[in-house]
Specification:
It comes from Tychaedon coryphoeus. InterPro entries: REC114L (IPR029168). This is RE114 protein. It holds the Pfam family REC114-like. This protein is an alpha+beta fold. The chain has 2 domains: about 170 residues, PH-domain like (Roll), CATH 2.30.29; about 35 residues, no CATH class. Helix content is about 25%, strand content about 30%. The chain contains 5 helices and 11 strands; from the N terminus they run βββββββββαβαβααα. Strands 1, 2, 3, 4, 5, 6, 7, 8, 9, 10 and 11 form an 11-stranded mixed β-sheet that branches. A hairpin with a 2-residue loop joins β7 and β8. The longest helix is centred in the C-terminal third of the chain and has 17 residues. The protein starts with a strand and ends with a helix. About 15% of the residues have low confidence.
């Protein structure tokens, strides 16, 4: 079921307490390649929660960070702070469809189906997650925006009927925790385009940084974070 405890999010424990929901599957929309014939069906790359691959979970950390992971692989990761400016979410039954737009005018789409021992429990998990997400951005219901596929579409991995703009591109490649740690240690120019945009503006960061600097334990914390990043990068 849903768990909420300090450190329960594994590698995200440094960010504070987190709430974790089990997922049945996670699907990433694959846009057509430039060489594809016009009208050719595109598809979804689907990850299943099973014994072989490990459990899929959706984690929202109190700091506002959103993760979808399977074992030690991070499939999605971003900050929900100000996400209403670039992220749209639609709920249908026990599924969520998420569509993100970047400043580079690129977009991507993915969806999740919540896990549970029954359809009722799956919908309860979805409802609980929507309640948490609504603290950061509105979540539309099916009556507000019709989804073109029913929840069984994930099983067939078919594309939705609604076409995406030509500028859409898949930014959500699988990333290991080690890769993410290596990126965090690099300069901005080495980061993937999806990670260029900061969650907060420089002005908003000022008060937070002042508070941190007033904490006598903050320098040691920064040092520990850097050591942990190096350790994760070497794994």
């Amino acid at each position: 079921g849903v768990s909420s405890a300090p450190g329960s999010a594994g590698d995200t424990s440094l960010l504070g307490s987190a709430t974790v929901w089990p997922l049945k599957r996670y699907g990433r929309f694959l846009p057509p390649n430039d060489g594809d014939e016009e009208g050719q069906s595109t598809s979804w790359k689907v990850f299943e929660s099973n014994e072989e691959s490990g459990p899929l979970v959706l984690t929202i950390v109190e700091s506002g960070h959103f993760f979808i992971s399977q074992e030690r692989t991070v499939l999605e990761g971003f900050s929900l702070i100000d996400s209403h400016k670039w992220l749209k979410i639609v709920r249908r039954a026990d599924c969520l469809l998420l569509r993100a737009q970047t400043k580079q005018n690129q977009c991507r789409m993915f969806r999740v189906q919540f896990g549970g021992s029954s359809r009722e429990e799956m919908q309860e998990h979805c409802c609980s997650c929507v309640h948490k997400l609504s603290q950061y951005l509105p979540v539309q219901g099916p009556e507000e925006q019709s989804l073109s596929q029913d929840t069984q579409a994930m099983d067939t991995e078919h594309a939705p009927d609604e076409p995406l703009p030509d500028s859409c591109t898949s930014l959500g490649e699988r990333r290991s925790v080690a890769q993410l740690a290596q990126w965090a240690l690099r300069q901005r120019s080495a980061l993937p385009p999806a990670l260029w945009q900061p969650a907060w503006s420089a002005r908003e960061l000022g008060p937070l940084i002042r508070l941190c600097l007033m904490d006598q334990h903050f320098p040691a914390f920064v040092e520990d974070v850097e050591k942990e990043l190096h350790r994760l990068a070497e794994e």
